[in-house]
Amino acid sequence: MPLNELIKKVKKFLKQTEENKDIKKKKILKVLEELYIKKAKLKKQKKRTSNKNDKKQLQNKLEAVNQLIKKSKKLI
Amino acid sequence: MVKNLAIALGFLITAYFISSSENLKIILSGIAIFLIGMYFMENGFKLFSGGALENILKRFTNNLFKAITTGFLATSIVQSSSLITVIVISFLSVELLTLAQGIGIVFGSNLGSTTTAWIVSSLGLKIKISAYAMPMLIFGVVLRFFKNNTYKGLGNVLLGLGFIFLGISYMKDGFDTLKDSIDLAQFALPGIKGIILYILIGAVATVVIQSSSATMAIIITALSAGNIIYINALALAIGANIGTTVTAIIGSFASNENGKRLAFAHLIFNVITALVAVIFIYSLRDFVDYLAPLFGIDAENYSMKLALFHTIFNLLGIIIVAPFINIIVNLAKRIIKKKVAKSSKPKYLLKSNIEIPNSSLLSLKKECINLYENCQRAMLHALNLHTTELKTKEDLQKQLTNEPRKSNTNIDEIYQTNLKLLYNEIIKYSSFAQEHMTSPQQKIAGNFKKSATRLIEVLKDTRDIQKNLDFYLKSKNEYIKKEYNNLREELGSLFIDINNLNNENLSELDKITQIEVIKSTLNKNDLSNSEVIDDLIRTQKIKASMATSLINDSATVYSIQKKLVEVAMILFIEDELLKEIGEENNAPK
């Protein structure tokens, strides 16, 4: 394959990879937004609940959401 | 042996007829070329649409009118009601469509198939279509050399159209010259006897050719050449409509109960339509005569009048039967009941949708869930827990407090007699289905395969702990008994949590959160287990032999749990990005 064609192909590939990264980043940001909304909801629910068992379950969920937020941030 | 002899005899008889009459040879060649054309066309649209056809059928069918319209348009474009019916059966088998939606599409498809008659009668007979066939064949073959599936598909569509046109042209020539040698019109039968006889001939011909479009093409060409009289041609068209239901019935043998119900509904629809058409055949003929001038059809143009008759009586069928669609659905459900298989046979892996990536992926997913449910049942029995009474954690606590009996579950036997077949079929099916998939789809199918493998590993791991579990649950040492009961509780509890994920009302985000909760509990359990075991050894509450068994079995249970979480992630989370987030940094802290 001639060199200029190879360069063109590599450039195209890099551009596509960059575009795909952008799309993925946007999707992750959307997931993060949803996770923050979920976190806020869980916090509210936890405040309202007086039952110990429910509180523990909500705390577990809250920790799980925090974990997911951390993981999502790592992917950006 | 008998079958082979019958095939040989069939070939000999056909060879005799072909060699005895030049005209018959031309007509039969025309039919063969027409059928090859339909095959190419079907195949071409599958490749060309690249899943678009399935998406349209899935999206635009949320009410009966839309379902009928979609079925009509799709069949008019693709020119194959069989292709549409096959896709609908495959969607029904994986419950992507309701039976009522499926029936709606098939009703519309029936009407759509009448467009073939219009094409043959308007284009096929008036102009020399073989002249158009040749360029189509040339371009079709050229396009087939491309690697891209869209071009290849377009090539197949063109080849299909070319062969269909060529087939019609051959049939026309054959019937034209046949008329000169034998006057078939002398066999024309007027009156009700003739109608019944020709309905039977039309039905049998369609069953043999397996295509009502091909039968209609033969009828129209024979009619235009004057080999049959108009009223008999109308009866033949009614017969073709009945015969086409046999194709659907044969197709449904390979499908599950929903496919059979659809074939049943198709039969009901076509029989009712045919009955109405037979009863009112003369009135319908007069109605066609009245309508024909409005469509610009000459009074002597019988082939186009036949096409109009074909459309009108199918439309009439829809108008009459569509209001009773729910009654047909209920009747079909009552007559064709869901079979509960004793052994774990594959329920969703249908050959009919192996070439349709979206459907085959769904089939694989459903079958893996089926394997999961079967493995779960076997594992819980081996753990002395009863699946039917295990819906909530309270149920689990109740069962754990009962004194366990010795489990008779033989996991090896269950695997060999039931689950091995299911596992084999999943692996085989996904390997074949992956051939027709894009690389992201192949990755998803690969993950389903992985989940099936993990499930079998989990089953075998359970077999490894079963002996110790049975032994120590009967032990007089309360400490070791309690520890083994804890292992049962962990597994039982995990199954309840995972089963809760199999809920369509739960959002993907809720599911991934739940899996994260499970993972965190799992890590905590593993840490606490090792500490507890150390403590039990130090305080000499359990013997060293007990301790080593418990350490090994705890490790196995931990491995089972991790694999089950992996399976849950594959089977119950659809969003690939959420899966990636869930898997990120998954190693224990």
UniProtKB/TrEMBL annotation, chain A:
The keyword Coiled coil applies. The keyword Coiled coil applies. Residues 14-75 form a coiled coil. Keywords: Coiled coil. It comes from the Bacteria. This is Uncharacterized protein.
UniProtKB/TrEMBL annotation, chain B:
One of its GO terms (cellular component) is plasma membrane. GO terms for biological process: sodium-dependent phosphate transport. It comes from the Bacteria. It is found in: Cell membrane. InterPro entries: Na/Pi_transpt. Keywords: Cell membrane, Membrane, Transmembrane, Transmembrane helix. It is a multi-pass membrane protein. The keyword Transmembrane helix applies. PANTHER family: SODIUM-DEPENDENT PHOSPHATE TRANSPORT PROTEIN 2B (PTHR10010:SF46), SOLUTE CARRIER FAMILY 34 SODIUM PHOSPHATE , MEMBER 2-RELATED (PTHR10010). This is Phosphate:Na+ symporter. It comes from Malaciobacter marinus. The lineage of its organism: Bacteria, Pseudomonadati, Campylobacterota, Epsilonproteobacteria, Campylobacterales.
